[in-house]
Design a protein that fits this description.
globular; Alkaline Phosphatase, subunit A; 14 helices; nine-stranded mixed beta sheet; alpha/beta; four-stranded antiparallel beta sheet
Length: 481
């Protein structure tokens, strides 16, 4: 048995925290995530650094928020000279391995990992055509096709996760139990398309109703614009229920795959000295407030599951309410495995509070979403969560302010209420400190000019790609009438 601790990091894509049994959902079946929680600690207030895939994932790797590393959009590159937690763990004597999803753009498809299996289905380079989803074209979102092309069928993303799970099983089957391991398993589910097998869909058919959170009568203007742009203003209720039902089914299918990996570790006697962490890169609105996908700072989109277990090191069956972030998970990995902290990380290890709820902690975190100023909406947005308060800043638009203790569903915007102006100004000052939306806009414009050249280069030269999983359009099936 290895004397150094092991790490198994299970990292999904687009899993809304609340659609998990151990977080209180009474319908969804997630016995394997519950199994990790039963043997460990869940965090109720865990957030992503950005409600968008690439910036969130690169922030997890680097421990830096998107603006600090200049990765705002899904076509931004994380610089290869930015050290990641994988680099630090490698320097500490581990051989970090990633199996499945990373979603890095550019020539560096390892970012400190020394081994990689399965890889990504999306291209390494901007400018190259995206993968062909066949009959599910447009269904990954954002767009109306996500909801219209939902229900029973098969998504290539699930097939990819089957391959990822098998690669993980093969890794642990062949692993020498005397050697320490550090493995990230990157899963695609439950990311849209909202398409699930008939077997999984049947588990929830007739049990999932329409969204329960309604948009306030006076909705924020940017959110109104978002609904109109993506044609989700008037979604037929039966379509919405069908998509939501499939999402639940995808969560359960992902959980079953995680169960296979946990069973393999138990079979090989690898659980005893292993820190197991489950989390996701962001959540999913799944129709709540008439919104879908991610991209927003409502809890459904920006809050993530965070579950840790570690025999003899962490308590069992406990929950924590401290406010944490994926950038903090970066620091926690390094702390737990005895590696050096990253010098420019903004994360703080929460290992002590996982062990002891009374340990001191600053309940403060951020998340940001800055979209391409030459496309999309050109928006710079940032969220701050401090204790019970959340403020959302929209550059050029009114802010939103919520007290999550009194209004956990975020239905009462307090931004213009006179008695809350002091806390609003305090949070706004913290949010804008070292974060300049005008400077970010200019930097994004500069980078866009660079990306135009990089994209044209890739289209003309067809550069070699590494660690690509071969997605074919025939893998996608939709069986709805």
């Amino acid at each position: 048995m290895s004397q150094k601790p092991n790490l198994l990091f299970l990292f999904s894509d687009q899993h809304a925290q609340k659609i998990t049994s151990c977080y209180g959902d009474e319908i969804v079946q997630t016995p394997n995530l519950d199994r990790i929680a039963k043997n460990g600690v869940i965090f109720n207030n865990a957030y992503c650094p950005s409600p968008l895939c690439v910036p969130s994932r690169m922030s997890l790797l680097s421990g830096r928020y998107p603006s600090q590393q200049e990765v705002w959009m899904n076509d931004d590159f994380l610089a290869s000279d930015v050290p990641t937690f994988a680099h630090s763990l490698g320097a500490a004597g581990y051989e970090p391995t990633i199996i499945g999803r990373m979603h890095a753009i550019g020539p560096d498809q390892l970012h400190g990992y020394t081994h990689r299996e399965v890889g990504d289905h999306s291209p390494n380079w901007i400018g190259i055509g995206r993968h062909n989803m066949g009959v599910l074209k447009g269904a990954p979102g954002p767009g109306r096709a996500t909801i219209d092309k939902s229900g029973i069928g098969q998504s290539a993303y699930q097939i990819k996760d089957v391959d990822t799970t098998q690669a993980a099983l093969d890794f642990f089957e062949g692993h020498n139990i005397t050697d320490p391991f550090c493995v990230t398993v990157g899963l695609m589910l439950p990311h849209a398309p909202y398409v699930a097998s008939a077997e999984d869909y049947a588990l929830y058919d007739g049990k999932i109703g329409p969204a329960t959170l309604m948009s306030p009568n006076k909705e924020h203007p940017w959110l109104n614009w978002w609904r109109e742009k993506h044609n989700i203003v008037d979604v037929p209720e039966d379509h919405a229920i069908r998509a939501r039902t499939a999402y639940y089914a995808l969560v359960t299918r992902m959980d079953k795959m995680i169960g296979q990996i946990l069973d393999k570790l138990e079979e090989r006697g690898l659980l005893e000295n292993t820190l197991i962490v489950y989390s996701s890169d962001h959540g999913d609105q799944i129709g709540e407030r008439g919104l879908w996908w991610k991209h927003t700072f409502y809890e459904e989109s920006v809050k993530i599951p965070m579950i840790l277990s570690w025999p003899e090191q962490l308590p069992k069956g406990e929950a924590r309410d401290q406010v944490i972030n994926l950038v903090d998970l970066n620091a926690t990995f390094l702390d737990a495995l005895g590696a050096d902290p990253l010098p420019n990380s903004e994360g703080h290890s929460f290992l002590n509070i996982a062990k002891d709820n009374s340990s001191p902690w600053q309940n403060l975190t951020f998340s940001e979403y800055c979209s391409d100023v030459t496309k999309w909406d050109g928006m710079r947005q940032r969220m701050i969560r401090q204790d019970d308060w959340k403020l959302i800043y929209y550059h050029g638009f009114p802010a939103q302010l919520f007290n999550l203790a009194e209004d956990p569903q975020e239905l009462k915007d307090l931004a213009e209420v006179p008695e809350h102006q002091a806390i609003k100004e305090e949070l706004l000052s913290l949010l804008l400190k070292d974060w300049d939306p005008d400077a970010i806009e200019q930097r994004m414009l500069d980078k866009q000019s660079d990306k135009e050249i990089l994209g044209a280069w890739a289209r003309k030269t067809s550069p070699t790609e590494a660690y690509i999983w071969n997605l074919t359009p025939e893998m996608n099936v939709l069986k709805n009438d």
